């Protein structure tokens, strides 16, 4: 795959650095990963596998093409990179209007979402960010997975408990904008989006077992601890 095609597949500008290419690759890979399509149709899964293979190829092409051995070259590249990062960050903010097409399937209308999946690890927590312009189908599929994961894994830690509430509230806000969004109607011609069709609709969060089980368990634990604390005092 040549560099121009690879950049198009990753959705980055010709001036993007290796780090930006890597970030774009990781961002897209976690959204279209075939695992996300495990419960959908065969056609959708094959399409995700094809898109994922293309993405991997694009990253491989750019990764080998942009590596520059030699310290002087690298230093110069680093200096250039920091300026480019600023320019790219400004550029990213500037081109985030609401009428851009879905980054996964290329359909419109699409809306910007910025949601997180939290995993509580007793005293630590880790969060995985999903920030992208998505159509109703792709956005809802990802939103439901992220929210279900957060409701299942986000509670397990003392600080995580509080962070999780904030994360869930933040995610809910973007869930509302996805619900208000009209269904995807047409693909923008020449869109570089990796998939050719919007993602399939998945199970609603409230119809999944694990989020309920985890949330109810955590509420029960909090209630038991509170009762125990009151008894000790009384
Ligand atoms: Zn889409």
TrEMBL record:
Pfam families xref list: DnaJ
Highest taxon of the lineage: Bacteria
Positions of region (Disordered): 63-94
Composition bias type Basic and acidic residues, residue spans: 77-91
Gene3D superfamilies: DnaJ domain (1.10.287.110)
Stored SUPFAM superfamilies: Chaperone J-domain
Transmembrane annotation, as ranges: 209-230
Alphabetized UniProt keyword annotations: Membrane, Transmembrane, Transmembrane helix
Residue stretches making up the J domain: 5-88
Name the record gives this protein: J domain-containing protein
Organism: Haloechinothrix salitolerans
């Amino acid at each position: 795959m040549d560099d121009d095609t690879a950049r198009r597949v990753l959705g980055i500008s010709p001036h993007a650095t290796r780090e930006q290419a890597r970030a774009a690759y990781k961002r897209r890979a976690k959204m279209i990963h075939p695992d996300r399509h495990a419960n959908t149709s065969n056609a959708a899964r094959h399409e995700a596998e094809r898109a994922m293979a293309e993405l991997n190829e694009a990253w491989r092409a750019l990764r080998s093409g942009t590596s520059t051995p030699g310290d002087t070259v690298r230093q110069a590249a680093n200096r250039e990179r920091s300026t480019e990062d600023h320019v790219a960050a400004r550029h990213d903010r500037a081109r985030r209007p609401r009428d851009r097409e879905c980054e996964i399937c290329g359909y419109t209308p699409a809306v910007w979402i910025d949601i997180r999946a939290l995993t509580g690890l007793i005293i630590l927590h880790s969060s995985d960010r999903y920030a992208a312009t998505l159509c109703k189908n792709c956005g809802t599929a990802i939103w439901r997975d992220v929210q279900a994961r957060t409701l299942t894994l986000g509670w397990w830690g003392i600080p995580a408990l509080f962070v999780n509430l904030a994360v869930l509230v933040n995610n809910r806000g973007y869930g509302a904008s996805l619900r208000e969004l009209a269904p995807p109607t047409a693909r923008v011609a020449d869109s570089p989006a990796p998939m050719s069709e919007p993602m399939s609709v998945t199970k609603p969060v409230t119809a999944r077992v694990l989020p309920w089980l985890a949330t109810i368990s955590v509420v029960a634990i909090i209630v038991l601890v509170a009762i125990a604390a009151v008894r000790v005092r009384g």
